[in-house]
Amino acid sequence: MTGWTWEYDGYEPADERLRESLCTLGNGYFATRGALPECAADEVHYPGTYAAGCYDRLTTDVAGRRVENEDLVNLPNWLPLRFRPADGQWLTPDTARVAEHGQALHLDSGLLERRTRYTLGADRVLSVRQQRLVHMAEPHLAALRTEFTAEGFTGDLDVEAALDGGVTNAGVPRYRDLDGRHLTRMHTGTVEPGTVWLRCRTRTSDIRIGMAARLTADAPVTTWREASRAGQRVRLRLPPGRTVTVDKTVALHTSRDPAISDPLDAAIDRVGAAPAFDELLDSHLTAWDQLWRRAELDVPGEAGRILRLHLFHVLQTLSPHTADLDVGVPARGLHGEAYRGHVFWDELFVLPYLDLHFPEVSRALLRYRHRRLDQARATARAVGRRGALYPWQSGSDGREESQEVHLNPRSGRWLPDHSRLQRHVGSAVAYNVWQYCEASGDTEFLHTRGAEMLLQIARFWADSATWDEGLGRHRIRGVMGPDEYHDAYPDAPHPGLDDNAYTNVTAAWVLARALDVLRTLPEPRRRELAERTGLDDGELEQWEDVSRTLHVPFHDGVISQFEGYGDLAELDWEGHRRQYGDIRRLDRILEAEGDTVNRYKASKQADVLMLGYLFSPAELQDLFGRLGHRLDDELWLRTVDHYLHRTSHGSTLSGLVHGWVLARARRAEAWTYCQEALRGDIADLQGGTTGEGVHLGAMAGTLDLVQRGLTGLETRDGALWLDPVPLPELSSYGFSLRYQGHWGVRLRLEPGRLEVTVPPSDRSPIDIRLPDRAVRVEPGETCRLVLPG
Amino acid sequence: MTGWTWEYDGYEPADERLRESLCTLGNGYFATRGALPECAADEVHYPGTYAAGCYDRLTTDVAGRRVENEDLVNLPNWLPLRFRPADGQWLTPDTARVAEHGQALHLDSGLLERRTRYTLGADRVLSVRQQRLVHMAEPHLAALRTEFTAEGFTGDLDVEAALDGGVTNAGVPRYRDLDGRHLTRMHTGTVEPGTVWLRCRTRTSDIRIGMAARLTADAPVTTWREASRAGQRVRLRLPPGRTVTVDKTVALHTSRDPAISDPLDAAIDRVGAAPAFDELLDSHLTAWDQLWRRAELDVPGEAGRILRLHLFHVLQTLSPHTADLDVGVPARGLHGEAYRGHVFWDELFVLPYLDLHFPEVSRALLRYRHRRLDQARATARAVGRRGALYPWQSGSDGREESQEVHLNPRSGRWLPDHSRLQRHVGSAVAYNVWQYCEASGDTEFLHTRGAEMLLQIARFWADSATWDEGLGRHRIRGVMGPDEYHDAYPDAPHPGLDDNAYTNVTAAWVLARALDVLRTLPEPRRRELAERTGLDDGELEQWEDVSRTLHVPFHDGVISQFEGYGDLAELDWEGHRRQYGDIRRLDRILEAEGDTVNRYKASKQADVLMLGYLFSPAELQDLFGRLGHRLDDELWLRTVDHYLHRTSHGSTLSGLVHGWVLARARRAEAWTYCQEALRGDIADLQGGTTGEGVHLGAMAGTLDLVQRGLTGLETRDGALWLDPVPLPELSSYGFSLRYQGHWGVRLRLEPGRLEVTVPPSDRSPIDIRLPDRAVRVEPGETCRLVLPG
């Protein structure tokens, strides 16, 4: 691994799934992973081209159950390209000796490069180099250049390219019992000279897909077609030592694209108008170069290299091309089929980063949620509440898509799945609305769609709160927090927990922000909102009341994860670690033992501590103060310690949140957790899950860790607040950001020093607030600040 | 006609087409016109439900020509509802005596009401009242309430409702030779209790349409279905004197909708979840009420009534619901099939109005153009130019859709149609980008998509300009101006004119604004743009040069419409008026005489004078000054006079532009032209064209006439400029506007007085500039200004 290249050498099929996953290429519109065609048969099990937001629903009977699944659809494979010595066998590692093989993902250029040397006989070597790109300036295009060099011989080589519609969703082994045949009504055809096409539809959502491929070579190209595949053939004359090139250019359109008439026509036109590979590469490089500048991140060492990989992967799923699409933030990006491409709450870890580099992308992702506000209101009504309840999992139309049962592979038992009781997604959406508006200064959005979402989410929380006379507090009962180990009280007849601290505190925050917005709205707009929603002063008073009286449980001098958490048993962590080694899925272990994790003070991931991730210490103290509690440093540190020792880190987000929180608490262990967060996908720490798709939230979260976490950066009240807590291992670094119409503002952190540079423009100066002072930086100025020792 | 109601009484089938057109109901997402089902057979020729942006292309062989037409598709008809005394004949004016009939379009509530009294026999009257709405808060819903009252009898009434897929595009008689069968693969079905559905696809663009209808009555509802129709039947018991009600609720979805999975499922779900009529009406009224407030317009007298009608029609095509759709501004709105729903340059007359009330709608319409920027660049390349050439007519995908031949019905000859040489659409797009950004303060848009469009349009103009050594000027040759009479020089072998003044002056303006934007862009963004477009200092110098040296021709002390215009013959206007009466289509008259209008100083509509519509006198003087010409009041007045007497006003836009320009020139004739603009559609001044769809540009233009024209309102350099030129006939009026985040800013004009009220908010104060002074109005303040006598 070098600075800008992610490289694997040798040929190790065992790691292939992980490698393929990290070697996905995308541009926000679509992403492609998968083996290059000259690789061995067992590799090509994992192709995959996913287009943002293209979902389809299938029903399967599995073990007597009718299981409905909405999947992000695996589109036809555009990659196939194989070759053989004239009239010989197609070359693969199974049929020919591979003398050398290497694969490199060039992050700076968005290029995947593979080099393979096949030994064809004594002194006869065929060297093959392939460069693959999914175009970052022209989102509907992808291209594959293949260079052949005959070493030590002259000969003819047959090359065959294809578009292959015979794909299914089969990327996650444990889903393979489910029907994955999403593509139907396949047609193929040719457009001379040398272009073939394939069109099909998804089975139930009826999204039409059009793909066209052009093959360019220095020899006559013929086309061929079958029912679900079409392609080209060319016979190349290989002179010794001279490189011969074949370029494949592919266009993809779906019927969800705006500004087209027919997706197949559009694909054929586009591939016909596409320039040659070199020119395509040139504009692709420029686009990637610009992305890297917008998200400049100058972090030294291995951390910097990993962060670049993370950024690369975030930008494949969420790039400026996403800004015109109706798509959300799928948990695994466009990188694999795990979680079926569903949207959870991962945007909470992604948007705060994007806000400060690609605000138009954040805005589009918030509009995605706004378009589903009506559905969220219907979901709230279905559980007997007013306002909006955003679902735990969703796909195409904003409906709840969470499974209702899941299998414990350890016990073989199907268990009820209550994860839809995680009702805190709305708080994540509200948090992102607020952060986006503060970072971008987009008052228009705040006053229109933003206010509509905040208001309905606040209303849901207020309506979910019930007054407990005994406690003298409002309570939110029967929910789940972010920690997925706990879904019920031990032996309780019904699922759900009361007064999850994360839920209640974020609910109070949402209510307070909704009240803030309503106070500052221009009067005519406030009237509109009130009329449309029936909001009146009585309800606002109720919000104010609930926002100050929601119950936050405590035990043993720490914040309780939920009411009654203090009564749970202590787990024998050491004993279980000894017995099972990896106890990340403690829930499954205990269930298989006939026990339940619900009995124990044991968390899968950060829950209470998420509060320290979302809010700065000052803001969290204010929030607790509003709720009538004094949250001092000691209480918080005790709370951090309590949960740190009782968490199994069974989620990729856990290391991130703990690293962030510990860094702010200036604790020595911080770096260990940060490293775990950094290594989550590159080392596949969650045991084989990276191969099924990267963990986008955790990846983006690490970027935000250096951007907001370690700098204490907040965009609040029209100012940029900073309160650095550099780690000894990460104390000198810089990055740029976009802030309220300023482009390329640069921050540089050095031990004891902070530097802010604002590029020249006609914008207003930027107000910077540190804990001990306030400064104003004019456009064109650099401000150097000495930090308190 | 009363203040808020557009009413027709009696029963006059001859006027039905006009009436139906003005009685269209829509909400931005879709619009429906057409007879109510109890009317006579000849009325139901003109149903029509058009969904924004749903185009389809068909090919027909007409008279040996292969004619391709892309149409805005007429969707299935959701209106049918008929009734009859039990087992009698269906009641229509053909089968029963109509004692009374009246139809009223309630503008304030977006309701179409019809009342009919059928005489069924001696002393037996069936009174029927229908209320129709296309829902303004829930854009996918429409509803029809029918109230039956038996007067003087008791009896059973059979009612039958339907969704009817058997529609074609047949609303414009002269297109009926073309294939209008856009709907295919029709399916129908029922969902008990009482709901039916219909789904189909457009023939080539393959847009899927799902429609579902629910019927609610106080009696058992049965359903029925046929191949392309489905509906309900109910037998009502009518007690004497008591009103019995049947409510029909309809949901429409197409596959172009975001946030749905399948359009039919979505329609069925939506109609199932829709509340009862009264509740639907309530939220519909609230939504309309809010629209009227956002576009408050307090103009007295008949002008005020007509302006309200115009506003009503604008809001049916372009409402906040449009802000999330990929749709443009079709010349005839969603009101009829003329021009096939194509998009021309009418947005130039629409967006400046919307900017100050619904900036989110303007932004969406500009994004529609931005999505087609690549296509506009391809169109430019196709004519050998760099930059972006927006087409004269377009539909789904931004391609040029202008016809290449047209028929002169007078001569029966097919003539070449060169209207695609109107290359000035790009200037309209650029003007709207600029106006939108100035009005909204949306710097983000200006710096991103706005700059991209401005730059490419400017580049097209610069690359279209050729240096004429003899003139010492740059020239743009071979184009058409807005005036469609002139498409070539007399006897020239090629079409096109040189140096159309409107084209050259707006091109200079675009170049100057593009240079302005590039100067003020944040440096990192400017670098991005330069890299992506290859823009360098040399090109910018060329733009600067072209923007100062474009040729503006003059003759006889006036601006020439184009170079050589002064050499054309004078037309015998009186003679032709005597001979033909209506000479609005002078081009057809002369061609039929074997002559050509190209020979004469005769314009169909404003061309040079459009400059006075787009630019304030001060700005126009600056612009001419930049081009090296002194444009004093006298020169301008001479120019106005010259063209005023040589224009046939064969476009609805002509009266508007002349009224505007004459008002600013403080000329007595202004009111006459303003009135013509106001009466264009209500009196169908263009001879039967209103029945084929309203003239949206002219309608919006009249709103802008009172908003910007007579007040001299400009949003420029961060201030609101005012320079009122009240007409004696229109000197006291008020309106509200949204400006840079302020909502509900109110302007009131009285003779000698101007009042500006800024509602309370936390926004910055508004800077107001009058010719003789500058004032600053704080939020919460009213500023009263005495105008110079």
Automatic annotation (TrEMBL), chains A, B:
Domain spans labelled Glycoside hydrolase family 65 C-terminal: 713-777
GO terms for MF: carbohydrate binding; glycosyltransferase activity; hydrolase activity, hydrolyzing O-glycosyl compounds
GO biological process: carbohydrate metabolic process
Pfam families per UniProt: Glyco_hydro_65C, Glyco_hydro_65m, Glyco_hydro_65N
Name of the protein in question: Family 65 glycosyl hydrolase
InterPro entries (alphabetical): 6-hairpin_glycosidase_sf (IPR008928), 6hp_glycosidase-like_sf (IPR012341), Gal_mutarotase_sf_dom (IPR011013), GH65_N (IPR037018), Glyco_hydro_65_C (IPR005194), Glyco_hydro_65_M (IPR005195), Glyco_hydro_65_N (IPR005196), Malt_Pase/Glycosyl_Hdrlase (IPR017045)
Keyword Isomerase: no
Domain Glycoside hydrolase family 65 central catalytic per the UniProt entry, residue ranges: 308-703
Glycoside hydrolase family 65 N-terminal domain: residues covered: 8-256
Residues that hold substrate according to the record: 345-346, 604-605
Organism from which the protein derives: Streptomyces phaeofaciens
Keyword Glycosyltransferase among record annotations: yes
Family: Belongs to the glycosyl hydrolase 65 family.
Active site location: 484 (proton donor)
